[in-house]
């Protein structure tokens, strides 16, 4: 039987042993690569093949969510040149619907669903005041839906 050698100190391990990352360690040597404190938690993170404690991971490696400004430890989304928790990437309009996996519109660094974007930013019809989302008629210094622009003949007495 081969002897286990500690990955950190290269000494033979004769008592308690930790096996992690395909290596063996003395418990006191299974330590965070950044702060050097022994990792006693059941969960830890990995950077450059070495263990990192949760505190150092949050401080040194995790991004910050643009939505809630908290550290990102799990699944993320990159959008608008920023990083978000999936649940924080939502419409910037009144509906606040999640936008993960959908198309969206951008305005001033914020993402919007189609409905809110049109309601908030689309040109308005001079006839009905509703958003114009397709081709419009431009006449009389205004934009009109095709159905809203009607020619009227004015008669004077």
Automatic annotation (TrEMBL):
Coiled-coil ranges (or none): none
Pfam family, one: LIM
Originating species: Stomoxys calcitrans
Chief location bin: other
Residue spans crossing the bilayer: none
Gene3D superfamilies found in the cross-reference section: Cysteine Rich Protein (2.10.110.10)
SMART domains reported for this sequence: LIM (SM00132)
Gene that produces this protein: 106091028
Signal peptide: none
GO terms assigned for molecular function: metal ion binding; transcription coregulator activity
Entry-linked PANTHER family: FOUR AND A HALF LIM DOMAINS PROTEIN (PTHR24205), GH01042P-RELATED (PTHR24205:SF16)
Organism domain of life: Eukaryota
InterPro entries, alphabetized: Znf_LIM (IPR001781)
GO CC annotations on file: anchoring junction; nucleus; Z disc
Domain LIM zinc-binding intervals: 4-63, 64-123
Subcellular location: Cell junction; Cytoplasm
Protein name: LIM zinc-binding domain-containing protein
Keywords for the protein's UniProt record, in alphabetical order: Cell junction, Cytoplasm, LIM domain, Metal-binding, Repeat, Zinc
